[in-house]
Amino acid sequence: MSRINYTDSIPNNVDLSSDRRLQRALEKWQPAFLDWWGDMGPEGWQAKDVYLRTAVSTDKGGWAQFGHVQMPDYRWGIFLSDRIPDRKVGFGDHMGEDVWQEVPGEYRNMLQRVIVTQADTEPASVEQQRFLGATAPSLYDLRNLFQVNVEEGRHLWAMVYLLHGYFGRDGREEADELLERRAGNEDKPRILDAFNQPCSDWLTFFCFTTFTDRDGKFQLGALAESGFDPLSRTCKFMLTEEAHHLFVGEKGVERIIRRSIELTKEDPNGNARNLGGIDLATIQKFINYWFSYSVDLFGSEVSSNAADFFASGLKGRWNEGKHDDHVALDVFRNIAHLENGKIVDKEIPMRNAMNELLRDEYARDCAKVMARWNKAIAKEDFPDFEITLPNTRFHRRQGIYANAHFSPDGTPISAEEWEKKAGEWLPSDADREYVKSLMKPVYEAGKMANWIAPPRRGINGNDINFDYVRV
Ligand SMILES: [Fe+2]
Ligand SMILES: [Fe+2]
To answer: Ligand 1 centroid to 158 CA: how many Å?
Structure first.
């Protein structure tokens, strides 16, 4: 079952040909998707051969096959992790009941909203990144960008399969609208804010894949716990693809940091910018920006929606299995609130704090990334500098901290102080212009742009100077 059928027009491991109606509906959506990909996918690279991996089976380890393909020929399809026999709902009010193979009527709207919100992020990121190919720092990076892009396209397929397969006419309409909204468009924006922000330089791309794709990891992890079994199985397989996106981001930022240190040491005034690099202070500002936009994606700290998602068994906690109490009633957790300029803890019923729990897990994971970057900095023999992660209260536009100001360490500050200091903490227009001015393409195999260090190794055992994209 986990072997993928590539003879169907839509590759799948869900025995799609046995459901004629669904197959026809998806075959109707397929050309619309390809039109969207042509319009909004990577600009200028559709006719080039790119060294991409494609899913072969959803078994652990053996799922990837590598080869040069043109992106429009990529085999987007529907791949679910194997069904676990006799699986039970693992949390909430339905704890211990059989998982649902069909949408439970009472939760239909809620479930549809969760799926549409997740789905919308997938095409959005492709749109945000569509011009980056024009300024790739190497063919290796160009290939990684396109790998991320085609897989976000596949994630869209994964979600559209659920909409078409389980939500009837409403689902088909939602699937159509996923191809109509546009990242950053004023009239038809994408649903979530971070997915309307421009992504027009590679430092942004690497921060985005580190921090915003990592939000995806945690959302998918929580949905993989779902009592709606098709959603759970879909998200489980998406997580295996997501891991590569996080790798691309983390290693990308790390390589920029390493190069920055080299140039800082080389310059008599200790400024990487003098030698065409990105200075560490600017890198830190971009990290602050994308971390804060990404923590917004988890929703409000105190949320009755989050409580409903948990109670209904639709969205669990990260690693739900590792918790002892899967019902989470009559338990509380403290959440810091701002009152009269002071931080005070308030006891919140655990179910209403589910967004905050997931955000905590996310921030802990991000802190591990910082530790790895700081280890790389230490290896370069560069004392007295560390990359830091801002507090989750810093620079928020959603949730209970949105209408106040906080320094990167989470201390409440006045609006005046914020005005004075924001330029030290977040990228200024001049910083963005500077970073953009460095973005010149390098399309010669094995060569790197001056502002980034080469990767330590290539993809799938190949050299760094392999022809990852045939220009
Ligand atoms: Fe994705
Ligand atoms: Fe991703």
So the answer is: 10
Dist. CA 465 → ligand 2 center (Å): 25
Q: How far is the C-alpha of 180 from the C-alpha of 120, rounded, in Å?
A: 10
Is residue 152 pLDDT above 90, yes or no?
yes
State which residues have CB under 5 angstroms from ligand 2, the bound ion: 213, 242, 245
* Residue 1 belongs to some domain of the structure: no
122 CA to middle of ligand 1, Å? 5
Tokens of 134: 């024009």
Whole-number Å distance between alpha carbons of 370 and 250: 9
* Residue 10 located in a structural domain: no
Distance set, CA 288 to CA 129, 335, 356, 397 (Å)? 20, 22, 19, 14
Q: Nearest ligand, CA of residue 249? A: 2
In a domain, 110, yes or no: yes
The Cα–Cα gap between 421 and 415 comes to 10
Q: Which ligand is nearest to the CA of 208?
A: 2
**Residue 404 maps to which CATH number?**
1.10.620.20
The span from the CA of 208 to the CA of 290, in Å, is: 6
Rounded to an integer, the average pLDDT of 456-465 is: 96
Query: What's the angle, vertex CA 109, arms to CA 97 and CA 306, rounded to 5?
Result: 70
pLDDT more than 90, % of the chain:
94
CA of 195 to the centre of ligand 2 (A): 12
When pLDDT is cut at 50, 70 and 90, the band that residue 1 belongs to is very low
* Domain that residue 58 falls in: 16-470
* Beta bridge partners of residue 334, listed in sequence order: 347
Give yes or no for a contact between 174 and 180, defined as CB atoms under 8 angstroms apart.
no
How many A from CA of 86 to the centre of ligand 2?
A: 30
71 CA to middle of ligand 2, Å? 17
Gyration radius of the chain's alpha carbons: 23
How many domains is the chain built from?
Answer: 1
Residue 11 belongs to some domain of the structure: no
Residues recorded for the chain: 471
